[in-house]
Design goal:
Structural class: alpha+beta
Order of helices and strands: HHEEEEHHHHHHHEEEEHHEEEEEEEH
Shape: globular
Number of helices: 12
Mean pLDDT: 89
Largest sheet: 9 strands, antiparallel
Strand order of the largest sheet: 3-2-1-14-13-12-11-10-9
Length: 425
């Protein structure tokens, strides 16, 4: 069924808006060369591979071996959805992991926030290359910081979570039930030195999307929860998705989250109930695997943004030296070993690691979860689901052709996971 387009999608995007949307993301240096879906190294063009679901399971089991009580993934392709789950979603009851369960998606929320703000750009309520202080007078100490700088993590605003979670469990317990205002979170950032000059370099910071939330509420005159609901959740029929703040509960069938303390061998901390007020528009959305599949696929298919705006959102710059990881407007791009490019976001919130990605045409999507955090090896292992799902089974080298292992996890060995929060392990 085709979801009716909201009124903002029916607007004609002018040449001026297209130019504004696709404005330069980075200074003209070799290290910051802009790469877009239609530029850069030519992607390997091959027949769409069948997902390696045994490889997906191996990645989930590896996440468990690295400290997660359970893990799950849901892949959707031309042949329909396929879900896999291992371990438990509740350590106390022993209840098995369930791909229908809801969980905290952490920084995948940033893509929700970016979509809303880009819709407001389409409606002419703000411009990407206008200083933030034009809309939020006096908020930031540097008039050069633009809306685009926020969405691309190039503002130079310090990430307040670095100090907040310097000690993982004590930091979490100090904010578990606390309710912050947006201004309080911005003030925590401004008390720290800035990381870069505006526009100079990519530096991931939750502060950027706290300010995005402030912009959404200032321009709409309504809470960010209503913007998510009216502009994304309701049009796409995301029945398991909600912005939950400051309520501490996850309603309905859900996955419990378990936080690793900094001390080796210390017991896991059940971190399920919390306000997530320390993140808000940077990370307080709750969802399910099916809803995340729907969201990333619909976004890539153009059901939420105009073609010009989606092109701007998927125009990316590198985030590391591997030339396989990039960031656009509230959106990550990963270039996989088989040449496939996938778009979406990673998420970390206490007790939960999330991956939610789709191909550029929206025909294939994957969402994956491990119910732990502060244990980067588990996050890295979970990232192996992307290679297995989107690249399929690797040919068995002749030297190992007689191997009887059901799945070779080394065949899909991922790079270390990118961090959305400070971690000690």
């Amino acid at each position: 069924m085709t979801v009716p387009l909201s009124s903002h999608r029916r607007l004609t995007v002018s040449a001026a808006l297209i130019a504004a949307l696709t404005g330069a993301l980075a200074p003209a240096t070799a290290a910051s060369t802009v790469t877009s879906p239609s530029a850069g190294p030519t992607a390997i063009r091959t027949r769409t591979p069948a997902p390696d679901m045994a490889g997906v399971v191996a990645a989930l089991e590896s996440a468990m071996a690295n400290g997660a009580p359970g893990a799950m993934a849901r892949y959707v392709g031309p042949d329909g959805p396929r879900g896999r789950a291992v371990g438990v979603r509740d350590r106390e009851s022993g209840t098995a992991m369930d791909t229908r369960a809801r969980f905290r998606i952490g920084s995948v929320s940033k893509t929700f926030s970016s979509v809303v703000l880009l819709q407001l750009v389409e409606e002419g309520r703000l411009r990407l290359d206008t200083p933030v202080n034009t809309y939020l007078e006096g908020l930031l100490p540097d008039e050069r910081i633009t809306v685009r700088h926020l969405l691309t993590h190039r503002s130079g605003l310090a990430d307040y979570t670095d100090a907040m979670f310097n000690e993982t469990v004590p930091g979490f317990e100090a904010v578990r039930n606390r309710v912050f205002s947006y201004q309080e979170l911005v003030d925590l950032s401004l008390a720290e030195p800035r990381t870069t000059e505006p526009g100079a370099a990519y530096a991931y910071s939750n502060t950027n999307f706290v300010v995005v939330g402030m912009l959404i509420e200032k321009l709409t005159g309504r809470p960010v929860a209503e913007a998510y609901q009216r502009r994304i959740i309701k049009p796409l029929g995301l029945r398991a998705t909600a912005y939950v703040h400051p309520d501490t509960r996850i309603k309905g069938t859900h996955v419990r989250g378990y936080l690793h303390p900094d001390e080796a061998g210390a017991p896991l901390v059940d971190s399920t109930q919390q306000t997530v007020s320390w993140a808000q528009s940077a990370g307080a959305v709750i969802s399910s695997p099916a809803d995340l599949n729907t969201f990333t696929s619909a976004l890539m298919r153009g059901r939420l943004l105009s073609p010009a705006t989606l092109e701007a959102m998927t125009t990316v710059t590198p985030t590391d030296g591997t030339n396989t990881r990039f960031y656009g407007l509230g959106l990550r791009r990963y270039d996989l070993s088989c040449g496939t490019r996938v778009y979406g976001h990673t998420g970390t919130v206490q007790g939960y690691y999330t991956y939610a990605f789709s191909t550029r045409d929206g025909r294939r999507s994957l969402s994956a979860l491990a119910n732990t955090s502060n244990h980067g090896a588990a996050n890295t292992a979970l990232g192996g689901t992307l290679e297995a799902a989107f690249c399929g089974k690797r040919p068995t080298p002749a030297s190992t052709a007689r191997s009887t292992r059901p799945s070779d996890t080394s065949a899909h060995a991922p790079l270390p996971a990118e961090r959305d929060l400070p971690e000690r392990h």
